[in-house]
Automatic annotation (TrEMBL):
Its EC number is 1.13.11.54, 1.13.11.53. Binds 1 Fe(2+) cation per monomer. Binds 1 nickel ion per monomer. Catalyzes 2 different reactions between oxygene and the acireductone 1,2-dihydroxy-3-keto-5-methylthiopentene (DHK-MTPene) depending upon the metal bound in the active site. Fe-containing acireductone dioxygenase (Fe-ARD) produces formate and 2-keto-4-methylthiobutyrate (KMTB), the alpha-ketoacid precursor of methionine in the methionine recycle pathway. Ni-containing acireductone dioxygenase (Ni-ARD) produces methylthiopropionate, carbon monoxide and formate, and does not lie on the methionine recycle pathway. The keyword Amino-acid biosynthesis applies. It is an enzyme of class 1 (oxidoreductase). GO terms for molecular function: dioxygenase activity. Pathway: Amino-acid biosynthesis; L-methionine biosynthesis via salvage pathway; L-methionine from S-methyl-5-thio-alpha-D-ribose 1-phosphate: step 5/6. It comes from Streptomyces levis. PANTHER family: ACIREDUCTONE DIOXYGENASE (PTHR23418). The record marks 110 as: Important to generate the dianion. This is Acireductone dioxygenase.
Amino acid sequence: MTLLQIMPEDAPDRILLRTRDDERIVAELAEHGVTLRRWPVLSADPAALDDQALLDLYRDRIEEVCAREGMTLVDIARLHPEPTEEWRERAAKARLTFLEEHRHGEDEVRFFAHGRGLFTLHLGERVFAVVCEAGDLLSVPAGVRHWFDMGECPDFAAIRFFQEEDGWVGDFTGAPIAGRFPRLDELTGSER
Ligand SMILES: CSCCC(=O)/C(O)=C/O
Ligand SMILES: [Fe+2]
Ligand code: NI
């Protein structure tokens, strides 16, 4: 289930709100222009599907988002666990890419077709940790400071929407804030 935990930007240990109530999560995020919608999950085993098959599965909804939000490029970010050292190294490297605070010049729109991942949003003087699960479509306005954690053992498939043809472009703030806030595994504990 989707989880939201809110903390002051200067006190990561002070939990102002922790909820799994979908309506509450949607409302809290909406106050900051962040949209969370739910789509039905259409495959129980997306790891068995290649990127094109996954995109085909969600084609109607993808086209809807592209038309509504002016998206021109769609890709898939994904990792599924493999029992090799080579995979662990690749996963650790991929994880580092998004772990520092950054923002984008366009909205960040992501659909989780599988697994989970933690978006931490720095909104005003508070930090919103949003654990997205399969079925979540999250839309974060351009310019919002944030970071993303795929966890120690990443397992997710996310459809990403871009307005610009050059795809993912991050503007890193250089602030050391992300290291002070809980990571995915800490927030979710042993849940699966
Ligand atoms: C869940 S998609 C991979 C992460 C990403 O694209 C991003 O911009 C994180 O902030
Ligand atoms: Fe991002
Ligand atoms: Ni998986």
